[in-house]
Amino acid sequence: MGDWPAVAKVINERMATLGLTQKKLAETSRVSTATLRQIQQGQNKNRQPAVLTAISRALGFSDDYLQEVADRGVTPAIAQRESATVADLKDQLADLRERVTAIEARLKPARSE
After folding, report:
1. Which domain holds residue 56?
2. Domain count along the chain
3. HEC states along the chain?
4. Structure pTM?
5. How far are the Cα atoms of 28, 45, 51, 70 from residue 16, in angstroms, in the given order?
6. pLDDT at residue 18 above 80?
7. 46 vs 71, which has greater pLDDT?
8. In this structure, what are the phi and psi dihedrals at residue 22, rounded to the nearest 5 degrees?
């Protein structure tokens, strides 16, 4: 059977995180756009394990990641750790941007002299 809404949520969130379009993911995974669209919408259809494996790989997950989501209806623990890591990286990036802006502001008067 499978928890297709959970699979759809994982795919859509990962695509957003990676900045992937549906077309690009379809090309990378070699899954048709129509099939990918159905999966993204959580449509309840039997899927070949190879389809979920291909999408998992294209999204940077382990081969069995999306199948595990479908079977269990929950996101495996790795995604939770990864989300925390991504959030930490975003915080660090924001801090670096602030520092660069401050450095640029200090250097700007020196350049105009």
Report:
1. 1-75
2. 2
3. CCCHHHHHHHHHHHHHHHCCCHHHHHHHHCCCHHHHHHHHCCCCCCCCHHHHHHHHHHCCCCCCHHHHHHHHCCCCHHHHHHHHHHHHHHHHHHHHHHHHHHHHHHHHHHHHC
4. 0.65
5. 16, 24, 20, 20
6. yes
7. 71
8. -60, -40
Q: Are residues 50 and 86 in the same domain?
A: no
CA distance 59 to 38: 17
The burial class, CB within 10 Å (0-12 / 13-18 / 19+), for 23 is exposed
How far is CA 64 from each of CA 19, 21, 24, 92, rounded to the nearest angstrom?
A: 22, 22, 21, 31
* Cβ-based neighbours of 90, under 8 Å, separated by 6 or more: none
* Average pLDDT across the chain, whole number: 86
In this prediction, residue 33 carries a pLDDT of 95
Q: What is the pLDDT of residues 21-39, one digit of tens each?
A: 999 999 999 999 999 999 9
